[in-house]
Design goal:
Layout: H1 3-19, E1 38-45, E2 59-66, H2 71-84, H3 95-112, E3 122-132, E4 136-146, E5 153-162, E6 167-168, H4 171-174, H5 180-194, E7 219-221, E8 225-230, E9 243-248, H6 249-252
Parallel strand pairs: 2-3
Antiparallel strand pairs: 1-2, 3-4, 4-5, 5-6, 7-8, 8-9
Length: 267
């Protein structure tokens, strides 16, 4: 996700959670919140920031929703944020440690590279509620990092949460057994059309294993379909950015389980 757009999403949802008023009627996308949440912020600034604004010095900042009395959901959100960025062999144990270590990493780098005094690093992560209704919450994880390389790095991930079962929704929870290949085939057809590839065109210019189209496990449940997202470098060069692929329910209705959290969207 574009960093500026990611920041805009954070601001919008932060204002919403503070007011906690009933959502305005905006048509098909309007939903009724069933779990109360507020946004929390963990932030660390480098010691050399002084009076500089966050946009002009090294800052590590994480914004995320907190759901009272929902430990499993809260733990899942924090875990995804920790996985979204870490510098060692494994994710950090807390968001406080994650932001502290990022600042320590910056301090170490500036000590080694004193000839670049005007360079500052950025870690900006967020988890935002995309949609919520009586049985489903979807969240988007965004992370932007710049740590001294040629360019920054963006990452976007998702959490689809079954509020009744109190668990993350896996693809197998909504897809009927044995239909994985059928889903992949439909997705490939959509991908070829989107990328303007012929039915027999090669995937040479993409980073699919064995040059064969494949779906990843990074998907968002939406009212109109399942949206898969490939991050930078996943299937294309950095310059191509992220790739989103929507599979409308109308194309895969026969492949889906009945009586699931997405049944409300199936017509």
């Amino acid at each position: 996700m574009n960093r500026r757009l990611s920041l805009l999403v954070v601001v919008i949802f932060s204002l919403y959670s503070c007011h906690r008023s009933a959502p305005k009627n905006s048509g098909a996308t309007t939903t009724k919140d069933t779990l109360v949440y507020t946004y929390k912020v963990v932030k660390q600034r480098a010691s050399d920031c002084g009076d500089k604004p966050d946009t002009s010095c090294t800052v590590a900042k994480v914004t995320y929703p907190f759901f009272p009395d929902q430990k499993v959901l809260n733990d899942t959100v924090v875990k995804r944020l920790l996985i979204a960025y870490y510098t060692g062999d494994k994710p950090d144990s807390s968001l406080q440690q994650q932001t502290q270590k990022f600042i320590q990493f910056y301090n170490y780098d500036t000590t080694r590279n004193a000839d670049h005094p005007n360079v500052f690093y950025t870690l900006e992560s967020s988890a935002t509620v995309v949609r919520q209704d009586s049985s489903l919450i979807t969240l988007q994880i965004d992370r932007y990092t710049y740590d001294g390389g040629a360019h920054g790095s963006d990452y976007t991930g998702f959490i689809n949460w079954d509020t009744g079962a109190n668990k993350k929704i896996e693809l197998g929870d909504i897809l009927s057994p044995g239909n994985e290949e059928n889903l992949r085939a439909i997705a490939e057809k959509n991908f070829r059309k989107q990328e303007k590839l012929s039915d027999t065109g090669s995937f040479t210019n993409y980073s699919f294993k064995g040059r064969k189209f494949a779906l990843n496990n990074n998907f968002l449940v939406t009212p109109i379909g399942i949206s898969f997202l490939y991050n930078e470098y996943e299937i294309k060069p950095y310059s191509e950015g992220q790739t989103t692929l929507l599979i409308p329910y109308m194309q895969i209705k026969s492949l889906l389980r009945t009586n699931t959290v997405i049944s409300q969207y199936i017509r």
